[in-house]
TrEMBL record:
This is WD repeat-containing protein 52. Residues 13-22 have a biased composition (Acidic residues). Residues 1-26 are annotated as: Disordered. It comes from the Eukaryota. It comes from Didymodactylos carnosus.
Amino acid sequence: KEGKEGTTTTGTTEEEEEEQKQEDEWKPYIPEIPSQALFGIYTSPDTFWLSMDDYDAGYLYHCQFSNKDDRFQYSEERQDTVISSLPVPNTDLAHGEDIPLTCILVKEDTKMVFVGLKNGFIRVYPYVEKQIFGSLDTYWTMGSHDSEYGSVTHLSMSFDNRFALSGGIDGNIFGYVVKGDLDIFQQRIPSALAPIRMPSQTTESEPQDIVDPQHYSIEEDKQKAEKDKMMYNAESLKKEMRNHIEALRTKFRNLLMENEQLPLF
């Protein structure tokens, strides 16, 4: 029994030493192709949020420059520090991989942070002073761009914070009506600046639906326009050919008249 216990103790010690050795030899995995940096935004002169793609996707990294004096000088030896990170919730069931944040628009006056995602969605987070983000779990979202090829690249907002725009790799631009609290903004609008008329306030009449069953549909109208163009080209070609034939006839008649005037031998 003592021998068995001794053997067990020795085996356990060897396993612990092996585990300790593996821990000592562990090195972080660095992909051969570095992950793409999608955007960065300052939270202070020395700290910033950084969003990464590919292997490093799925988190928003809060980083700090290792040396304040040479933070604008690139060096391969310099290693900046990751202070903290926030996981990016992935609610897109069609994509199993992590979905990174691709662009950002911070609006301090409306207390909102707009972000675009690689899967074409837009998210709006509450603005937290100094750190910008408090958490990535609470947000409003909407999908407009193509979920496969519509990675959002640009976000912008109108001067009065009533409208937002998003642009994506799919070539589309979408507009959104922002229904937020505008009191802060309205307090600093110059009185001489006329407000933008909202769509609900316009005096223009709304377009009427086409209900006549005999009326061309959009596709039929397009086909008719193409057919009319073909008919016009054909008629133009016929007219050109007739003019050419008439010119040949005139030339032939002139030759006959010249032949009749020639002397007989």
